[in-house]
Amino acid sequence: MDLLSIAGIVLAFVALVSGAILKGAGLHSLVSSAAMMIVVVGTFAAILVQTPGRVMKRAVVILPLGVPLAGDGCPRAGATPR
Fold first, then answer.
1. Which residue has the higher pLDDT, 50 or 29?
2. What's the predicted TM-score (pTM) here?
């Protein structure tokens, strides 16, 4: 994950919390099943729209393997996959 991705995630959380506080709703309003469902399903739908099918199939295949740890034969960052 690059620096801009991390900055985007932090900015998204700051925007969510700030918006809830400015609206006067409080942080408890962010923890509701309906809101959570909209965010999770909406995010997944956006990922499906943006990601090409072949990339999504590859992600589904490697997803259960978890995050590779250093020294387990994973290529270095920036290396071209075979």
1. 50
2. 0.44
Cα–Cα distance, 50 to 66 (Å, whole number)? 23
59 phi, psi to nearest 5 deg:
-65, -40
Closest CA to 27 of 18, 36, 38: 18
- Specify the residue for token string 């499906």: 48
Residue 11: its pLDDT value, please?
A: 92
Query: Which residue type is seen at 9?
Result: I
Give dist(CA 55, CA 19) in Å, integer. 34
**Positive/negative CA dihedral, 33, 34, 37, 39:** negative
DSSP track, 10-48: HHHHHHHHHHHHHHT--GGGG--HHHHHHHHHHHHHHHH
**H-helix or E-strand spanning residue 9:** helix 3-23
